TrEMBL record:
This is PTS glucose transporter subunit IIA. The lineage of its organism: Bacteria, Pseudomonadati, Verrucomicrobiota, Methylacidiphilae, Methylacidiphilales. Residues 10-153 form the PTS EIIA type-2 domain. Pfam families: PTS_EIIA_2. It comes from the Bacteria. The keyword Nucleus does not apply. Keywords: Sugar transport, Transport. PANTHER family: PTS SYSTEM FRUCTOSE-LIKE EIIA COMPONENT, PTS SYSTEM FRUCTOSE-LIKE EIIA COMPONENT-RELATED. It comes from Candidatus Methylacidithermus pantelleriae. The keyword Transport applies. Signal peptide: none annotated.
């Protein structure tokens, strides 16, 4: 069970981070990131989870600004909170044609964990709002360094 003060870095492992996405469209990129969770023990059904994320994305773009997007779904196709990250050096258009995204944080949470989900998203938003943290995430040479940047930033917040 996820603790109320769960950190983003606690939910990530190097296998859940792809430092160079090959996709060029929003939905392809979300799927590419979702595939990182294919063997995650908390994902009940990957395709259904992905479809829930797409349905949410079609309601309103999950672009949050500064080249970052949080595609997500509250769905029981995940047993506990999950996160995967994709990075694109070229950027991927999200929503309108003016918005290119470099960092995609894909989030899944069971419907029963609403407050945990809100706490996680709030914490993640605070982290990526920091220009230095965002730059370090974009420049991290390895998935392990990517996680270390998040851990260091979480200690300061």
């Amino acid at each position: 069970m996820v603790e109320e003060d769960m950190l983003v870095s606690d939910l990530l492992s190097p296998e859940q981070i792809k430092l160079e996405l090959t996709s060029t469209t929003r939905l392809e990129a979300i799927y590419e990131v979702a595939l990182l969770l294919e063997h995650h023990p908390c994902v009940v059904e990957l395709q259904s989870f992905y479809q829930a994320v797409v349905a949410r994305e079609r309601l309103q773009s999950t672009y949050v600004g500064e080249g970052v997007a949080f595609p997500h779904a509250r769905t029981d196709f995940v047993k506990d909170m999950v996160i995967a990250v994709g990075r694109s050096s070229q950027g991927i258009y999200f929503g309108d044609a003016e918005r290119k995204v470099s960092l995609i944080f894909l989030l899944g949470t069971p419907k029963r964990l609403t407050s945990h989900y809100l706490a996680l998203v709030g914490g993640l938003a605070r982290l990526v709002k920091d220009t230095t943290v965002r730059t370090q995430l974009i420049q991290a040479p390895t998935a392990e360094r990517f996680i270390a940047v998040l851990e260091e930033a979480e200690k300061r917040i």
